[in-house]
Amino acid sequence: MSDYHNATTEQWLQWDKDHIWHPYSSMLNPVEMIPVVSAKGVRLTLADGTELIDGMSSWWSAIHGYNHPALNAAATAQLSDMSHVMFGGITHPAAATLGKRLVDLTPAALTKVFISDSGSVAVEVAIKMALQYWYSIGKQHKTRLLALRNGYHGDTFGAMATCDPVTGMHHLFNKVLPSHIFVESPRTAFGDTASDADMAAITTALKEHHQELAAVIVEPIVQGAGGMKFYSGDYLRRLRALCDEYDVLLIHDEIATGFGRTGKLFACEHAEISPDIMCLGKALTGGYLSLAATLCSDRIAEGICNGEAGVFMHGPTFMGNPLACSIANASIDLLLASDWQANIQRIESILREELSHAAPLSSVANVRCLGAIGVIELKDNVDMTSIQARFIDKGIWMRPFGKLVYTMPPYIIGDQDLTQLCRSIVAAVAEEE
């Protein structure tokens, strides 16, 4: 029998290779995994002692970095009381406090909170809210969704059906997914006024299909895993008006953009609008535990609860987990206690200056930055194995995909580390030439 508790690095790496699925990975030809044994601040420590500056915030979630004393303290304090208790028929201070704080922080129209256990589930909940709302008020024919090309909303089935059928990575399942309606993504750049031509596709779709549409779902301002595209707040303002005109709900997926990443606490603030339903996740717990929330308006909640079922038909086992909720409250404390807006502006300034040096490279199609997001878009897909090896050689951790080499660093990253991160990124891209 294996000595599970005293395995060497080589042993547990082999176990991983033999048995463990990683995101979007092959079990027939697995890539070599990078063995991380600890993390602190903005650095990941590998099994051989190598330290890497983390440019990904663990997929955009670890906004305060790793091993933060305030978040550690919150976890320890909650563990001494209870790590989990069912949420059916029971409540606790951490969840009640988190719900109130999210209502206070998000747009005023969002007053009700469903706390779940992952971003993808938050999207599933949002879709179910929209569908059950229309069913409950007697409009059972409103069952389809309208989404944007280049959008990405998660890997579970309801969420997959709203991702771009091509760039959303889920085309293999098209025959079994619900059929929704897609329109071209906005072309108007962030900061610019949306033209009638840019609004034409979504305006036409709403006009032609509003009788069957339950909701429009979008990632506000930043389309994430579908292409790292930044678009106009004016587009969102006009979309909000269109949804009102045609009596279609608006869902904002703020899982990647929430909690300051774009320079506003929530990306919808760039447009000064409120969705009917908002999804939150990722940075909610500062990257410590999986937790998500779906917020909705009184209109949605009352419509659902006045309907046939009388209740909203969803309830995960780990809903409202006390440990995760306590850490989320501490993470929000940390963010709001800081001058986070000035800090995001600092990060954006360095990203713009340093990543601009990639623009003249022949392999680079575009360089763009917004808030604490920096993107180098290449003309061709990266060779993941070779470029990631170069990143590690240069002392940084990055996870590109497709044609995109992007960074979303932790908010606590210092100027020197951020400059080193950016220069290493540009150097690695240059070596791809």
TrEMBL record:
<protein>
    <recommendedName>
        <fullName>Adenosylmethionine-8-amino-7-oxononanoate aminotransferase</fullName>
        <ecNumber>2.6.1.62</ecNumber>
    </recommendedName>
</protein>
<feature type="binding site">
    <location>
        <begin position="316"/>
        <end position="317"/>
    </location>
    <ligand>
        <name>pyridoxal 5'-phosphate</name>
    </ligand>
</feature>
<dbReference type="Pfam" id="PF00202">
    <property type="entry name" value="Aminotran_3"/>
</dbReference>
<dbReference type="InterPro" id="IPR015424">
    <property type="entry name" value="PyrdxlP-dep_Trfase"/>
</dbReference>
<keyword id="KW-0093">Biotin biosynthesis</keyword>
<dbReference type="InterPro" id="IPR005814">
    <property type="entry name" value="Aminotrans_3"/>
</dbReference>
<feature type="site" description="Participates in the substrate recognition with KAPA and in a stacking interaction with the adenine ring of SAM">
    <location>
        <position position="24"/>
    </location>
</feature>
<feature type="binding site">
    <location>
        <position position="253"/>
    </location>
    <ligand>
        <name>pyridoxal 5'-phosphate</name>
    </ligand>
</feature>
<keyword id="KW-0963">Cytoplasm</keyword>
<feature type="binding site">
    <location>
        <position position="399"/>
    </location>
    <ligand>
        <name>substrate</name>
    </ligand>
</feature>
<keyword id="KW-0032">Aminotransferase</keyword>
<feature type="binding site">
    <location>
        <position position="152"/>
    </location>
    <ligand>
        <name>substrate</name>
    </ligand>
</feature>
<comment type="function">
    <text>Catalyzes the transfer of the alpha-amino group from S-adenosyl-L-methionine (SAM) to 7-keto-8-aminopelargonic acid (KAPA) to form 7,8-diaminopelargonic acid (DAPA). It is the only aminotransferase known to utilize SAM as an amino donor.</text>
</comment>
<comment type="subunit">
    <text>Homodimer.</text>
</comment>
<dbReference type="InterPro" id="IPR005815">
    <property type="entry name" value="BioA"/>
</dbReference>
<feature type="modified residue" description="N6-(pyridoxal phosphate)lysine">
    <location>
        <position position="282"/>
    </location>
</feature>
<dbReference type="InterPro" id="IPR015421">
    <property type="entry name" value="PyrdxlP-dep_Trfase_major"/>
</dbReference>
<dbReference type="InterPro" id="IPR049704">
    <property type="entry name" value="Aminotrans_3_PPA_site"/>
</dbReference>
<dbReference type="InterPro" id="IPR015422">
    <property type="entry name" value="PyrdxlP-dep_Trfase_small"/>
</dbReference>
<feature type="binding site">
    <location>
        <position position="315"/>
    </location>
    <ligand>
        <name>substrate</name>
    </ligand>
</feature>
<feature type="binding site">
    <location>
        <position position="59"/>
    </location>
    <ligand>
        <name>substrate</name>
    </ligand>
</feature>
<keyword id="KW-0663">Pyridoxal phosphate</keyword>
<keyword id="KW-0949">S-adenosyl-L-methionine</keyword>
<feature type="binding site">
    <location>
        <begin position="119"/>
        <end position="120"/>
    </location>
    <ligand>
        <name>pyridoxal 5'-phosphate</name>
    </ligand>
</feature>
<keyword id="KW-0808">Transferase</keyword>
<comment type="pathway">
    <text>Cofactor biosynthesis; biotin biosynthesis; 7,8-diaminononanoate from 8-amino-7-oxononanoate (SAM route): step 1/1.</text>
</comment>
<comment type="similarity">
    <text>Belongs to the class-III pyridoxal-phosphate-dependent aminotransferase family. BioA subfamily.</text>
</comment>
<dbReference type="GO" id="GO:0004015">
    <property type="term" value="F:adenosylmethionine-8-amino-7-oxononanoate transaminase activity"/>
</dbReference>
<feature type="binding site">
    <location>
        <position position="282"/>
    </location>
    <ligand>
        <name>substrate</name>
    </ligand>
</feature>
